[in-house]
Design brief:
CATH superfamily: START domain
Radius of gyration: 15 Å
Strand order of the largest sheet: 1-2-8-7-6-5-4-3
Order of helices and strands: EEHHEEEEEEH
Structural class: alpha+beta
CATH class: Alpha Beta
CATH topology: Alpha-D-Glucose-1,6-Bisphosphate, Chain A, domain 4
Oligomer: single chain
Strand content: 35-45%
Largest sheet: 8 strands, antiparallel
Length: 165
């Protein structure tokens, strides 16, 4: 089930996943799981350094094939809220491979794209599964980022089903 709602300055996606809250939490906080599903279709995550604690840093590399050839993007951020199995909040900025923030304009993003965005993942039990509400503040609901999140969450759904048991 997908119920997407949006505002002008945020992507908000609600999904009900067929996995317990503890398992969904692992998907967001354990690098090996995160690398397996994160990113749009066709993307791979060769690196996911994740120090999941308040003040902890993250550095994620995404690789994908584009019509112009292979592309690699880096993202860095900091964990703001870590409430195990219910709420995860972290910041995200485009960066280089060392975690140095790179201005969005240098990465080809449209004028006005914020340097820092915020991702909020709220989880709660829903029967035998999990209700997840993802909010990415600072990313317009009609942006390619919104489509990328939906593709990533489709991959998450498949990964959860394939790794069940």
């Amino acid at each position: 089930m997908t119920n997407d709602s949006a505002t002008n300055d945020a992507v908000v996606i609600e999904r009900t996943l067929d996995a317990p809250v503890s398992r969904v939490w692992e998907m967001w906080t354990e690098p090996s799981h995160f690398r397996a599903w994160y990113g749009p279709m066709g993307a791979s995550i060769p690196k996911a350094d994740m120090d999941v604690r308040v003040g902890g840093r993250r550095l994620v590399a995404m690789e994908m094939q584009t019509p112009n050839g292979p592309m690699q993007m880096w993202f860095t951020g900091e964990y703001v809220t870590v409430d195990p199995t219910s709420l995860l909040v972290y910041t995200e900025s485009m960066s280089d491979e060392t975690g140095r923030v790179v201005p969005p304009a240098e990465m080809g993003m449209p004028e006005g794209h914020p340097e820092v965005t915020e991702i909020v993942v709220a989880l709660e039990p829903a029967g035998d599964g999990t209700k997840m509400v993802l909010t990415h503040r600072g990313v317009p609901s009609d942006s390619p980022g919104a489509m990328g999140w939906n593709m990533a969450l489709d991959k998450l759904t498949t990964y959860l089903a394939d790794s069940a048991g």
